Hints:
363 residues, 2 domains, single chain, 8 strands, Rossmann fold
Amino acid sequence: MNWLVIIIIIILLAAIFAAVTRYEYRKVFHVRGKEATPFFDHFFSVHPELSVQPFACASGAESLYGVRLRYEESPAATPAATPEESPAATPAASPAESPADPPKGLIVMMHGYGLNMEHYLPQAEFFARAGYAVVLYDGVGVGRSSGKGIRGLPQHVADACAVLDYVESAPELSALPLMLYGHSSGGYAVCALSCKKKYPVKAIVSLAGYTEALGGMKAKLRKKYGPFSFLGLLLLAVFQIAEFGREASGYKSIRGLGLAGCPAFIVHSENDPILPYADHFVKIQKAFSGRPGFRFWTTDARNHNLGVPSDANERVWQLQKQMRQDPGAAESPRDDLRDELWGLQMLIDEDMLTRFLEFYDSV
């Protein structure tokens, strides 16, 4: 076999490898995120006293849909759910401020990949009941926002900055102390956004957050390609630069947290099946251990979806899958599935959220 044939074979193999890697990138990011569901309206029907104000803002060429939440009057205390009661009818109670008090601050919540703002509404209500104004939104390619696909994690940073620019343009919001709350890719965005633009952030809570835009692909490529995974990462980096520009490659959680210069609460589960603990949490902890204002919490026996009870989370995925697989089921059984699903979606991990609330209050 002469050298020309060998070179041709190497070029062909490289082209195939590049095509497969590109396919992997597009399969993950060039898809629409979770669409809006009737749970959105159901949630506010359960909390009629919660003030909701929709807003829209531009993120590049796309339009983001968001909501502003707050209690303008002190809500009546709601008893905690018991096993015999419907979870949908008994959302967890939390402290409330008096009607005359202005919001303690503003918490901007950023959703994770594969989810939309609906997933975080019960958590947002907890913070609103405790006296905060809250902003939630759907990112590009997700829920009620425009866009054909999510595109990639740098898009989460761009969307976060677009919403914070909107916050700065609204005097009643910009006057409040700014707090950030993000989960998964949202946890990455709240940490990394200061790499793009500096905002007056007072506190950051990041749950199971990525450390870099391609971090979520590392474990997947390692499993698939073994020692050759670094080639896939190199190609993905090239694709990401082509998608977002060279600037986006610098959006990293560790760098962003350093630039933000504010207290941060970083949380991760040791058995996280999506983001390996050692690849993400450990790196941030090593970079900021001992830094004043930083708190680190390692949980166990939990999954990636922190902020909600882990046992309820598994049943939610089962119900959603069952409803997708059986669209022609009789109306009554589907109503039963929907009611169970919505009841579980109302649940929150109140112990965990109370820790975050105490952190925000201390700041």
